[in-house]
Amino acid sequence: PYYIDLNQNLYLQAYLHSSDPNLIVFVDTCVASPDPHDFNTLAYDIIRNGCVRDSSYATYYSPYSHSARFKFNAFEFISRHTLVYLQCELVVCRLGDYSSRCYQGCVNRSKRDTSS
Q: Ramachandran region of residue 96, left (φ > 0), alpha (ψ -120 to 50) or beta?
């Protein structure tokens, strides 16, 4: 595990190991949980469907399209949970494919009745 104090910034980088320079990485969802096997019951969305949910989340410029850099403040759920696990979903797209998920940004995926 990686240890960090509360409220310190946690910096992360996702890197695509590929020789194809025309691929880009997009951070779609990152969820924190005190249980490494359950990211639904007690979970905290840092970013969901490309929409930032945590005010301390920030992205950082990367000179490489095949990496994504971001940070957020470390936190704990409640005092009895000393560990926090992070699960992220990333999307890989073709550079310049503006119809791909990577270029859509924040997407609210709530289902609505469109018949009325």
A: left
Q: Which SS3 state, helix, strand or coil, does residue 101 take?
A: helix
Are the C-beta atoms of residues 57 and 10 closer than 8 Å to each other?
no
Q: In what order do the strands lie in the sheet with 9-15?
A: 9-15, 67-73, 58-60
CA 96 – CA 78 distance, rounded (Å): 43
d(CA 35, CA 107): 27
> What confidence tens digit (pLDDT) does each residue in 59-113 have?
999 888 889 999 998 886 766 777 889 999 999 999 999 999 999 999 986 655 4
